[in-house]
Automatic annotation (TrEMBL):
<dbReference type="InterPro" id="IPR027417">
    <property type="entry name" value="P-loop_NTPase"/>
</dbReference>
<keyword id="KW-0175">Coiled coil</keyword>
<protein>
    <recommendedName>
        <fullName>ABC transporter domain-containing protein</fullName>
    </recommendedName>
</protein>
<dbReference type="InterPro" id="IPR003593">
    <property type="entry name" value="AAA+_ATPase"/>
</dbReference>
<dbReference type="InterPro" id="IPR017871">
    <property type="entry name" value="ABC_transporter-like_CS"/>
</dbReference>
<dbReference type="GO" id="GO:0016887">
    <property type="term" value="F:ATP hydrolysis activity"/>
</dbReference>
<feature type="domain" description="ABC transporter">
    <location>
        <begin position="309"/>
        <end position="497"/>
    </location>
</feature>
<dbReference type="GO" id="GO:0005524">
    <property type="term" value="F:ATP binding"/>
</dbReference>
<feature type="region of interest" description="Disordered">
    <location>
        <begin position="245"/>
        <end position="270"/>
    </location>
</feature>
<feature type="coiled-coil region">
    <location>
        <begin position="204"/>
        <end position="238"/>
    </location>
</feature>
<dbReference type="InterPro" id="IPR003439">
    <property type="entry name" value="ABC_transporter-like_ATP-bd"/>
</dbReference>
<dbReference type="InterPro" id="IPR051309">
    <property type="entry name" value="ABCF_ATPase"/>
</dbReference>
<dbReference type="Pfam" id="PF00005">
    <property type="entry name" value="ABC_tran"/>
</dbReference>
<keyword id="KW-0067">ATP-binding</keyword>
<feature type="domain" description="ABC transporter">
    <location>
        <begin position="4"/>
        <end position="215"/>
    </location>
</feature>
<keyword id="KW-0547">Nucleotide-binding</keyword>
Length: 499
């Protein structure tokens, strides 16, 4: 017997013509570990809010034999020591937090007394998850836990979740992470949610088989619709010709040449009436068949305004270190040449983003060793955190970019047209990331610095980005922790910063 039942759930936001969910039915066990998948804007966070009771369905109901708890937690006083910042909203004893936290890191005693705001993103995630799983009688709803986690932290968090006995729902676009921790998949498609048994790879095989069947069914429907339209055209032409023959032929009695036959006129009207009735039936049949089309995610290739540099060597470091008093990382040596991509990895807080800002002259700090970058090189920078304001049109105008190019890219990234006129700051995090990505792709550049480009993007978008990089070979430095993405590159082009 299922412990969470979703019955005929229908939900739409005010003013929304097409509901996000329509008559959704699910049966979920409390010990299931589920990955919630779906494209940006399809309703993943909305579904979690419906489970939490923060949103009310327009129709249907959710029956639960558990208490849901949401990640990320609400932290009102980040300047407090971590244990106090957590206890401000959540009942947990110091020893309980230490116990759970020690399963993910070795410094829990020291960590919980540091100000929460001074913890790295990975440390904050671990503290919040330890708080969530302190009680076995809650069912956690975990929304994007891997964003900003380094590779080692992802492994620690995955190992922690994998060994939990209680179930949970997790939203993540990190395929390697999902494969380690889930045993069921909830996939949002069109306005329903499909349920699959197994991890992400199992789901992907089933989904590809399903999509292949859908493609074949869709092709049959297209062929039938084409046949019906051809039949409708022939019937209409036949009726029009009959009417012409009866009314406009001088050699036919009653056609308008030598007099008028009431019998012929009535017969022509009946023919036209039958033709219109046939057309109406065919139109209805076409509509019915169009409604049967299956929803298959189809993506279009992205474009990039990449300009190869004239010189072969674009950027180089030799025995280089950045220093805040002491060095941030051990000396690094590497050269980035035209049309090469170099992936930079390393633990949180080691200085990866700071290195990008140093290249861009956004920070002034001491350094040792040698750093060189081509004079007059045009750089496009995609920041880890999106801080854009105003509309997309204003963004294009302020940066001298082609608005149509940006909008075309956003459509290819699956962004709905109805949000194009919204202020960017009011968009979802995934939509904001797509705007920032489109801006970078439209900017003419010889070198791209992308800091965690996959954060908040759905799996289809991630594949679009990887395909673009492989096909166009732009010169790039990329900071990324997603293991599946990293594994797509030759190990000689992966540089790990170390202490």
């Amino acid at each position: 017997m299922a412990d969470i039942k979703v019955k005929n759930l229908t939900f739409a936001y005010d003013g929304q013509l097409t509901p996000l969910f329509k008559k959704v039915n699910l049966n979920i066990g409390l010990d299931w570990k589920l990955g919630l998948l779906g494209r940006n804007g399809q309703g993943k966070t909305t579904f979690l809010k419906l489970l939490l009771g923060e949103l009310v369905p327009n129709d249907g109901q959710i029956e639960r034999q558990t208490t849901f708890q949401y990640f990320p937690l609400k932290i009102n006083h980040p300047s407090y020591p971590t244990i106090m910042a957590i206890q401000d909203n959540y009942p947990i004893e110091e020893w309980e937090l230490k116990k759970e936290l020690s399963k993910m890191c070795s410094n829990s005693d020291e960590l919980i007394w540091r100000p929460y705001a001074e913890l790295s993103g990975g440390e904050q995630t671990k503290v919040q998850l330890a708080t969530l799983f302190k009680n076995d009688d809650v069912f956690p709803l975990i929304d994007e836990p891997t964003n900003h986690l380094d590779g080692e932290s992802r492994k620690q968090v995955a190992d922690y979740l994998k060994h939990k006995k209680q179930g949970f729902i997790v939203v993540s676009h990190d395929v390697a992470f999902l494969n380690q921790i889930i045993d069921h998949v909830l996939s949002i498609e069109r306005n329903t949610i499909l349920q699959f048994h197994g991890n992400y790879d199992t789901y992907k095989v089933e989904k590809e088989n399903q999509d292949q069947n859908y493609l074949e069914e869709n092709q049959k429907l297209k062929n039938e619709i084409t046949r019906l339209r051809e039949t409708a055209r022939e019937k209409k032409n036949w009726a029009v010709q009959r009417e012409k023959d009866n009314y406009g032929n001088p050699h036919v009695k009653g056609s308008g040449g030598t007099g008028h036959s009431g019998f012929t006129s009535a017969r022509a009207k009946r023919s036209m009436k039958r033709s219109k009735a046939i057309q109406k039936r065919i139109d209805q049949e076409i509509k019915q068949k169009q409604a049967l089309f299956n929803n298959i995610i189809e993506t279009s290739p992205l474009t990039i305004n990449y300009i190869p540099s004239r010189k072969d060597e674009v950027l180089s470091f030799k025995d280089f270190q950045l220093r805040y008093g002491s060095p941030l990382f051990a000396p690094v040596t590497f050269t980035l040449k035209r049309n090469e991509q170099l992936i930079i990895t390393g633990q949180n807080g080691i200085g990866k983003s700071t290195l990008f800002k140093f290249i861009l002259n956004l920070v002034q700090m001491n350094s040792t060793g040698d750093f060189r970058v081509n004079a007059h090189v045009q750089i496009s920078y995609l920041s880890q955190s999106v801080k854009l304001n105003g509309t997309i049109a204003q963004l294009a105008d302020q940066n001298g970019l082609n608005l149509n190019e940006i909008l075309n890219l956003l459509r290819k990234l699956g962004m709905p047209r109805e949000v194009f006129d919204l202020p960017i700051e009011q968009m979802s995090k995934g939509q904001q990331k797509k705007v920032a990505l489109a801006k970078s792709l439209v900017e003419p550049a010889n070198l791209y610095l992308w800091d965690e480009p996959l954060n908040y993007l759905d799996i289809e978008n991630q594949q679009q980005i990887l395909t673009l990089i492989k096909e166009k070979s732009p010169t790039m430095l990329i900071i990324e922790h997603d293991q599946k993405f990293i594994d797509s590159f030759d190990p000689q082009f992966i540089k790990c910063l170390k202490r």
